[in-house]
Each structure stands twice: as structure tokens, then as C-alpha cells.
Specification:
Nuclease_put_TT1808, five-stranded antiparallel beta sheet, Restrct_endonuc-II-like, 6 helices, six-stranded mixed beta sheet, Putative restriction endonuclease domain-containing protein, tt1808, chain A, alpha+beta, Uma2
Length: 215
């Protein structure tokens, strides 16, 4: 009989995520690579100060990002929140020598050149520091989903010196661009192995929460 832990380890071993780091890459070569890969590429590419990171996401990675996006869109619908999904669009600034493709991203309220929110699903550590990258792209909030937990960071332009180690971002417990979102509820539903059951549970609990608030 195969134990659950053994099965999980086997699935992870059969579902690798490959990451390659290349140094000394010019901005022109980075842009040429992005153009060659095109919109239908299965790779995620990030660039920062001549360092190029290329990731071939695992199935676990893609499942995580898709489920987060699905539940967030339920939240936007139930709360009547204006949003503009920008997904894994390549965002870049040559003057900042930074470019990246979030796992999921959104403009909240109005559509903008760069998203308010970037979400990264972390399966394999190391590589380019995503907080430094997103700080250069002026992304207001960054969420990391790792080991079935969220870590949220909000950019503090008014007091950057207090958060030098996190490149101007402050670690927060609740989203400031989506303050009514219960991040613990979102994480709890994401740990449900059945996506349909998780979505139904999340929607029901959102409706219960906001119906109480309206009384």
C-alpha cells in the first residue's frame, strides 16, 4: 500500500520545474529572446541588471496560479470590484533594467500600464529577487504563494529606507489594495484538493461574510 506522503513525493519527482540563470545578458538580447518566445511560450522569463532567469513551470505551479486566479475572480464578482486581468504579460522598463512576467497580475479600479498586484507561485527557490524586480516596475503589491501560505508585501515609497532589505516593500497581513479580502480564507480554500468544491465553498463564505456586513 502506497502511503499518501510517498505518493506526493513521487508526483513531485515526476513533475519537475526547471530554472536556468544566465548572467551578462544585454537588454537587447533579453528583448530578442522575449520576442522569439512569443505569447504562447510555456516559459516564464525575468530580467534584472543583466541577469536572465528562465523557468519552465511545473504542473503544480500552473495549477496553483490558475486556482488563485479563479478564486480571485469570484471575489471580484461577489464584491463588485472593478478589475483588469493582465495575467502573465511581459512588463519591462529598459531605464530600470528590469522585466518580468508574473504568474497572475491585475490592475484594480482602472486599467494601467503596470498592474497594482503581481502574484508569484513559488515552487523552486533561488534566482532573481522578485521584490527588487517589481519595485523597479512600481508594482504596488506583491503576493507570494509558497508551501500553501501567502506572503504579502506592499510598496512604501514614502518610507523606503525602513524596508531596505525588502526593496521598499513592507510585509503585511492584509492586502491594502483589496482590504475586504480575507487572505486566510483564500489560502484555506486553495488547500482543498477539489477545485470545484473549493470554489463553491469560497463563494458561499464570501456571500455569508458580505451579507452580514450589509445588515
Amino acid at each position: 500500500m502506497v502511503l499518501l506522503n510517498d505518493l506526493t513525493q513521487r508526483l513531485q519527482a515526476d513533475d519537475p520545474e526547471e530554472k536556468r540563470i544566465v548572467t551578462g545578458v544585454s537588454w537587447q538580447h533579453y528583448e530578442a529572446l522575449v520576442a522569439d518566445l512569443g505569447d504562447n511560450s510555456g516559459y516564464r522569463v525575468a530580467y534584472l541588471d543583466g541577469v536572465l532567469e528562465i523557468v519552465s513551470p511545473s504542473r503544480r505551479h500552473e495549477k496553483g496560479k490558475t486556482r488563485i486566479g479563479g478564486l480571485l475572480e469570484l471575489f471580484f464578482l461577489e464584491t463588485d470590484t472593478e478589475y483588469f486581468p493582465t495575467g502573465s504579460t511581459t512588463f519591462r522598463k529598459e531605464e530600470s533594467q528590469a522585466g518580468g512576467e508574473p504568474d497572475e497580475s491585475y490592475c484594480i479600479g482602472t486599467e494601467k500600464d503596470f498592474p497594482n498586484l503581481a502574484i508569484e507561485v513559488v515552487v523552486t527557490g533561488g534566482g532573481i529577487n522578485k521584490l527588487e524586480l517589481y519595485q523597479r516596475l512600481n508594482v504596488r503589491e506583491v503576493w507570494f504563494w509558497q508551501n500553501e501560505n501567502f506572503s504579502l508585501y506592499h510598496l512604501r515609497e514614502e518610507t523606503p529606507s525602513q524596508f531596505q532589505q525588502t526593496f521598499g516593500y513592507e510585509r503585511i497581513d492584509r492586502s491594502e489594495i483589496l482590504p475586504s479580502l480575507d487572505i486566510n480564507l483564500l489560502a484555506e480554500c486553495l488547500t482543498n484538493s477539489n477545485p470545484l468544491a473549493a470554489a463553491k465553498d469560497f463563494r458561499q463564505r464570501l456571500r455569508s461574510q458580505f451579507s452580514k456586513n450589509s445588515i
